[in-house]
Amino acid sequence: MKISFAKPASAPEGALVVTVLEGRQLGATGQALDAESGGTLARAMAKSRFEGKKDQTLLLHAPAGLKLDRLLLVGIGKGKSFDAKAAQALGGLVVAQLQGSGDADVTLAVDPVDGAALSVAEIAANAGFGAKLRSYRFDRYRTKEKAEEKPSLKKLVITAAEHGDAKKAYQPLEAVAEGVFLTRDLASEPANIIYPETLAEQCKALAETGVEVEVLGEKQMKKLGMGALLGVGQGSERESQLVVMRWNGGSEGEAPLAFIGKGVTFDTGGISIKPAASMEDMKWDMGGSAVVIGLMKTLALRKARVNVVGVVGLVENMPSGTAQRPGDVVTTMSGQTVEVINTDAEGRLVLADALWYTQDRFKPHFMIDLATLTGAIIIALGDQYAGLFSNDDKLSDKLIAAGQAVGEGVWRLPIDDAYDKQIKSEIADMMNVGGREGGSITAAMFLKRFVNGVKWAHLDIAGVTWSKKDGPVTPKGATAFGVRLLDRLVADNYEK
Amino acid sequence: MRIHFATPPGPVSARALAAPSTEAEAWLARLDQNSFKAEPEEVLPILTDQGWRVLVGIGERSALDDSALRRIGGSLFAELAQAGIVHLAVGLDLSPEQTAQVAYGIFLRAWRTSPKYRKTPDEDEVWHLAEVTMLCDAPERARACFAGLEAVGKAVHFARDLVVAPGNVLTPPAFLEALGTIPGIEIEVIDPKKAGLNLLQAVGQGSVFKPALAVLRWQGAGKKDRPAVLVGKGITFDTGGIDIKPAKYMEMMKGDMGGGAAVAGALMALAARNAPVNVVGLVAIAENAVSGRASRPGDVVKSYGGLTVEIVDTDAEGRLVLADALAYAAKKFTPSKIIDLATLTGAVEIALGFERAGLFTTDDALAAQLFAAGEAEDEKLWRLPLTDLYDHAIKSDIADLKNCSWERGPDHIHAARFLQHFVPDDIPWAHLDIAGLSEAAEDGPLAAEGPTGFGVRLLDRVLT
Q1: Where in chain B are all domains bearing CATH 3.40.630.10?
Q2: What are B312-354's pLDDT values in tens digits?
Q3: At a CB cut-off of 8 Å and minimum separation 6, what does B192 contact?
Q4: Mean pLDDT across the stretch A243-268?
Q5: Superfamily of domain A2-161
Q6: Which is catalytic among the residues A274, A305, A412, A455?
Q7: Alpha carbon distance A300, A281 (integer Å)
Q8: Which whole-number Å values give the CA distances from B45 to B39, B104, B106, B130, in the listed order?
Q9: Closest approach of A382 to chain B, Cα-based (Å)
Q10: Which of A374, A400, A422, A437 would best serve as a mutation to test chain B binding (most B beta carbons within 10 A)?
Q11: For B387, which residue in chain A has the nearest alpha carbon?
C-alpha cells in the first residue's frame, strides 16, 4: 500500500476519513463538511452510539449533501492523550476498516487536535506509519485468491496543512516500516524456504543499503571453537551459519552497539523432539535473528549516526543420526562446557557462542540479544510483554522507556545468583536446562555466563513474536516485535 | 533448645582469631585449604581431645549485614544440631546487635515438624544440640535485641506448624481454634452464609466443615488510626473440587493455607512485640472438597462485592475466597492499605521459580516498601504486571467475570487482575502470590525443607 501526503482538498471526493474527539467534536475538515452538507455528520452521530471515543468508527455511505462515496468518522478519544502511539493506531484503524471496502484510494484528513502535544505534521506522519504497519500482508503463497478476498486499498493519501513537514517526518518512520516488513517476511517464511544458508543470503542482500555483511560457515566456526552452536546444527543437512552485519554510521573507532539474534530456522526440538501439535510454529524460532536483520536494515535506511553490529546464529535443530544426544557435553567458544540435558533448549546454546564471539571480537558498548527462547516466558508474562533480563539498570530503564514509547512493552525479570543452582551439572560446567520453575530466568542465567561482564540485556520474545489476533498496527501473524523498540532505543540514546 | 547470652572468659576482642597462637589458627594450619575456605556459612566441627571445636566461616567482616549474620546462624544450627554437640558456645567477636542476629538465624532454623504425628520419634530428626550460649560483650544488650527477634521467630514457627499440619488435623474449625490461641489477638468468626460471602461459601460448600472468615485484630495504636488489613488464603485442603487435581503430590495441598498462616503469624509477631500499629488480619478459611454438594464448573455466584463470577474451574478457588475477603476488608475496616497473601497459582512458579514471590500492585510506593522489606528479610519479591491488557482472559460469556482462563498463559497475572476487581481503586493494595515460597523443596539457610513461614517476617517489617 502506498502512503502519500498532500494539502487538504477543497472539494474532497471518493472515500474520506475524518477524526472526531470524544464528545462528538469534529475536526476542522469534519466541521466544514458538516456545514456544507447542512448537518449530515452531526445528525449521523446523534442517531448512533458513536461518541468519538478512541477506536469508535461510524461509516456513512454516499452521505447526503456531499460528493463523497464514503465517509468514515473515526473516534480519537481525548485530545490530551492523543500521542504518537494513538496517531499510529488511528492510521492502523483506517486500514483495518477500509482495506476490504472496495475503495482503492482513501484520503485521511488530518486536522489539528485540541489538547494534543503533537503537531499536525507529526500526527500525519505517525498516522501514515501506523497505516503502513497495519497494511502488511504475507500472501506470496496464495495462488488462487479471488479478487474480492484481496484488500482493495492501494493508496492512502493523508492530507494536512503541513504536508511537506509530514512527508519529511514520515521518511525515518518508513525506514522502520521497511525493517519491520523484512522481519515479518522472514519470520513468516516456511522453513523449507528460509534455512541457515538462505537466511544468510537475505542478510547479504542488506549490502545494498550499505551494511557490511560477513558469513561464517561451519569450518570457520569449528576453528573458533563454537561447539555449542555447531552441536545444535549437527543433526541437520543444512550448514549452520553465523552472520555478522555491520553498520558504521558513527565515528570511526567508536565501540559499536551489538545486537545478537537467535536464528533457529526450524526447531523440531532435536532428539528431545517436540509434540506434533503446533510444531509448525517453530518456523519462527528464528524470530530474534529476523529482528536483528530488520533492525540493521532500518538503521541503514535511515542512515543512523551510530556504529552497530548485528550477529545472528543460524541453525536448524533436527533429529537425525548425526544429531546431538541428551547428555552430550559440548565445549563453547568461551571454553566453558555444557551438558546438553535437553536438545530442545537449543537457543541458549546458539546464543552462548554468538554472545561470546561478539564481545570477544567487537568489544561492544553493550550487547542486546533477542530470542524466542522459552515457553516459560509465555506463562510468566503472556503475550503483552517480552521478558527483559539485564546486568545493567540503566540499560534496562532505557529499554523499558523505549518500549513504552513504541508500544512494545518489556518487563524486567530477576537474575539473582540464587537461581544458578538450578543449572548446576553433575559432569560439566553447567546444564542447558534448569527445570520448569523459573525457566526463563535460568535460561537468562545461562546466557549471563557468556557475556563476560559486558553490559548486556536479554529479551525473551517467545510470547510476543507471533500474534494470534490483530493489534492496532500489527495484523495477526509475525509481529516483528523488537524492531521498533530497538530502533527507538538507538535513536533516543545513542545517536549523535 | 535454649539460647543464652553470656560474656566470654576475657574480652572477646582478645580472643579474636587473628592471633597466630590461637587454637583456631593451629587447626586452620593443619587443614587442607579446600576443606575450609572460611566463606560465609561454612561450618566445620572438629572433635579434639578437649571436646568439640567448630570453625565458622564468616567471609568479609565488612559484608556482615543482618541477612548474612542470620544465614551464618542458620547454617550453624543446620550443621551442628545432629553432630553430637549438646551445648554450643558461639563467640564470633561480634557486636551485641550482630550476635542477636546470629542467634535469630539459629532460632529460625531450629524448627521441625511436631513429633505428635509419630508414635516413636524418627531417629534422623533427633537434635543433640540442647543449649546455645552466645558469647559477646554486653550480653544483656544482645539479649534485649534478641527478645524482639525471637518474638517474630516464634510467629514464624507458628506459621510453619500450621502449614505442615495435615488436612484432617487442621480442618477449618481446627484452624479457627488455632487462631484463637494467639496471645493478645481478638478473634471474631464470620459465617460466610450469613454475611453474604457467597464465593467463600461456594468454595467451602462441598466440605463437611463449614467455611469461615476469621477476623483477627491487633490494636497497637490509637483507635482513630486506620488499620492495615492483611488477607490470607486459608484453604485447609485443596482437592481441586469437582475439577479434581491429579493424585500425584496432592498431599502437598494441605499447605494451601500458607497465606493464612503468614497473616496469623504476622499478627502474632506484632502482638508479641507490642507494635504500635493497628492491623486487621482476615483469614478466608475453607476446605475445597469433592462431594455431592460441591460447586460445579459453570456455577455462577454473586460475590460479596456484588460482581457475579462464573466458576469455570473449581480448582481456581483461592481467588474466589480472597475476592470476598478483599471486598469485606474494604467495606468494613476503612483500611489504610490491604495486603493479601496466597499460595495462589502454579504459573507464578514458572515465572519466578522458588527464589521470589510474585508482587502485584498498582501502587508504586507500596511496591517499593514491600520490595525493600523482602530484600531486608530475605523473603524476596518481584513485581509483575497488573494491567487491563490481560482482562480478556477473565471475561465471562455469562457473568461479570470468570475465575480463570483455560488458555495456556499467565494465570498468576489473570488471578491478580481478578482480585483487583474486588478492591476499590482508592485503597492501596498489594497481592503476593507465594505459591513457590511457602514451602521449600530443599534445605535453605533459615528453614529446612518443608514449610518456611514465608511472609511473616516480611509483613512484620513492612507494617512497623
Answers
A1: 152-462
A2: 999 999 999 999 999 999 999 999 999 999 999 999 999 999 9
A3: B198, B200, B201, B204, B211, B212, B213, B324
A4: 97
A5: Leucine Aminopeptidase, subunit E, domain 1 (3.40.220.10)
A6: A274
A7: 30
A8: 15, 21, 16, 16
A9: 5
A10: A437
A11: A384
Which residue in B39, B355, B446 has the most chain A C-beta atoms within 10 A of its own C-beta, making it the best mutation to test that interface?
B355
Do residues A186 and A290 touch, judged by C-beta distance below 8 A?
Answer: yes
8 A C-beta contact, residue A91 and residue A130 = yes
Q: Are A376 and B382 an interchain contact pair (Cβ–Cβ within 8 Å)?
A: no
B249, B350, B392, B437: best to mutate for the A interface, most A CBs within 10 A: B350
Report the DSSP pairing between strands A337-340 and A430-431.
Answer: parallel
Chain length of chain A: 496
Task: Give the chain A residue nearest B409 (alpha carbons).
Answer: A379
User: Which of B349, B382, B385 has the CB atom closest to A414's CB atom?
Assistant: B382
A325 assigned to active site: no
Sorting pLDDT into bands at 50, 70 and 90, what band is B23?
confident
Phi, psi of B247, rounded to the nearest 5 degrees: -65, -35
Which H or E run includes A206?
Answer: none
CB contact under 8 A, A416 and B380: yes
Domain with CATH 3.40.220.10 in chain B: 2-141
Q: Which residue of the set B141, B245, B332, B383 is catalytic?
A: B245
Per CATH, which fold does B152-462 belong to?
Aminopeptidase (3.40.630)
Strand partners, A466: A478
Q: In this structure, what DSSP letter does residue B114 have?
A: -
**Residue B311 in 3-state DSSP?**
strand
Bridge partner list, A266: A316
N-to-C CA span, chain A: 33
Question: Nearest CA of chain B to the CA of A386: how many Å?
Answer: 11
User: What would the pLDDT profile of A101-142 be if each residue is shown by its tens digit?
Assistant: 999 999 999 999 999 999 999 999 999 999 999 999 999 999
Region B403-413 average pLDDT: 96
Residue B133 has pLDDT above 80, yes or no: yes
What is the Cα–Cα distance from A376 to A395, expressed in whole angstroms? 24
Closest in B351, B355, B389 to A380, CB measured: B351
Q: What is the DSSP letter of B322?
A: H
Q: What angle do CA A427, A429, A430 make, to 5 degrees?
A: 90
DSSP of A404-449: HHHT--EEE----GGGGGGG--SSSSEES---STTHHHHHHHHHHT
**CB–CB contact A382 B356 (8 Å):** no
DSSP line for B360-383: EES-HHHHHHHHHHHHHHT--EEE
Across the range A286-298, mean pLDDT stands at 98
Q: Which fold has domain B2-141?
A: Leucine Aminopeptidase, subunit E; domain 1 (3.40.220)
Opening angle at CA B174, ends B173 and B177, nearest 5? 90
Which among B356, B410, B413 has CB closest to A414?
A: B356
What is the pTM (predicted TM-score) of this model?
0.94
Residue numbers in B near A417 (CB within 8 A): none
- Answer left, alpha or beta for residue A308, where phi above 0 means left and psi between -120 and 50 means alpha: beta
Domains of chain A, by residue range, sit at 2-161, 176-493
Fold of A176-493: Aminopeptidase (3.40.630)
Q: In this structure, are residues B339 and B281 in contact, taking their beta carbons and an 8 Å threshold?
A: no
Between A286 and B53, where is the model more confident?
A286
DSSP B226: P
Is B350 in the A-facing interface, judged by CB distances under 8 Å? yes
- Cell numbers standing for residue A5: 501526503
**Which of B352, B380, B409 is closest, CB to CB, to A378?**
B409
What is the spatial distance between Cα A168 and Cα B229, in angstroms, rounded to a whole number? Answer: 57
Instruction: Determine whether A274 is an active site residue.
Output: yes
Question: Which of B42-51, B55-64, B426-435 is the most confident on average?
Answer: B426-435
